[in-house]
Amino acid sequence: MAISVSDSKSASTHHDWFSDENLLLMDETVKEVFGVMLGLKIELEGEVPAGAGERVHHEQTAIIGFAGAMSGICEINISTVGCIAIASVMLGGVEVEAGSDSVGDAVGELCNMLAGGWKNRIPSLGSACLLSVPTVIEGTSYHVHQHANATSSRRSYKFAENRMLLTLLYDDPK
Amino acid sequence: MLGTVLIVDDSALMRKIVLRALDAADLDFEEVLEAGDGKEALKLLKANTVALIMCDINMPVMNGMELLKAMREQNVAAGVPVLMVTTESSAEHVQEAVAVGASGYVRKPFTTNDIREKVLALLH
User: Nearest 10 degrees: CA dihedral of A32, A34, A35, A39?
Assistant: First the structure.
């Protein structure tokens, strides 16, 4: 499956949305969401090169679209085992089976909170940028096409024994 | 008993999380209704009397803002408090939601205390 990031007509002004300062705001958002919603400690492992066409690492992916002042996506990628752990914690410790709707819902909702929490921390994006509903993909046989002028940032985080890859991508009109 | 609560969110998992937060906060609702989007919620509101609506904003088919507008235009569940439970929490979004009928806001991620405080403030 291929997913394209659409052209933006409104994002006509150049912004460095992925400045060091804004990426630190994503780290802050990740820690808040995992801490408040899951009671889990999560640490940044580091930046990961996010090349066009690169295969994803884990089986569960959620993608949220940004539209408005910034046109792009927030994508998170977690193993099924990690998503089961997240869904179980979200539901108060109940057992969650692989393949249940809760697994996909968990990664989708997590992506929603991360994308929304991040853009709301950036004053120029808060109300000027809207979120799509999450798209959840199970499996690794896909890649996200980037336009030539797309700017991306990928970061790896570690929680418990699991990892989350978080990719931010936007169409840069520069 | 606090009557009937309607939880509106396209994520079944998030509806369960909200319900769990209500239980953990000792908010004892007599009945819980669930809807996956605004259209389903509107249908339930026309057929049931509810004490509280807890509603997401970003949903397919009919989003939370559209639900608030439809409730107002069709005079459905007039006077029933609506607590928005959402990631869309900028000041402008809050103002827009309040302008079309929202009574309060809980930002995701939330704690049980966040839910308890906001719900009690609306029901008492």
Answer: 170
